[in-house]
Design a protein that fits this description.
Structural class: mainly beta
Radius of gyration: 23 Å
Order of helices and strands: HEEEEEEEEE
Helix content: 10-25%
Strand content: 25-35%
Length: 179
């Protein structure tokens, strides 16, 4: 009795068949969405900065002699597939990250390492010193949002825009602050 499996195909067709099957599996994997077990509704979105600093207070980040460089800010997400802006056509539970610094747009992307672009800031140096006029420390306020392909916020479990914030001290050399 002749075999009806993949092994019965001629070698030239077998390779092509495996490529097509592999490509189809990859496409099916990209199109899946995360839903809750009970309701079939999309999971709420969540994003958090992964703050490597231990203890309280803002994290100090050195940028050396390049005030036009960038600082990687690590995040983690839940309930969403990250895709480049405008890359979620036809997908649900899909979006990208937008980074705001001191309330102004700074960058966007689909990487879990968001780049805070110092060259887009009016002043990249924030040394944590107390402002005489306000009594507030001189820090950068970074906020990351999860948004859909049109830039509308994705919502967290409380129905609020999925976001997180972080305070940073940004100077050429953090060790100079300890002196």
């Amino acid at each position: 009795m002749p075999s009806t499996g993949l092994s019965s195909l001629p070698p030239s067709l077998l390779g092509r068949t495996l490529v097509v099957l592999g490509s189809t599996a990859a496409l099916v994997g990209c199109g899946t969405t995360t839903t809750t077990e009970t309701s079939g509704e999309p999971e709420p979105a969540a994003v958090r900065f992964i703050d490597p600093a231990s203890g309280d207070g803002p994290q100090c980040v050195s940028f050396g002699d390049r005030a036009d460089s960038w600082i990687p800010l690590l995040v983690e997400t839940e309930g969403v597939m990250l895709r480049e802006p405008r890359g979620c056509v036809g997908l649900t539970d899909c979006g990208h990250l937008q980074l705001y610094v001191d309330g102004l747009f700074n960058n966007q992307g689909a990487s879990l390492a968001m780049h805070l672009r110092l060259g887009r800031l009016s002043d990249p140096i924030h040394d944590g010193s107390i402002h005489a006029a306000t009594g507030e420390p001189d820090v950068l306020h970074a906020e990351v949002f999860l948004v859909d392909r049109t830039g509308e916020p994705l919502l967290d479990a409380d129905g609020e825009p999925a976001s997180d914030s972080l305070e940073l001290i940004t100077v050429p050399d953090c060790s100079a602050l300890a002196e």
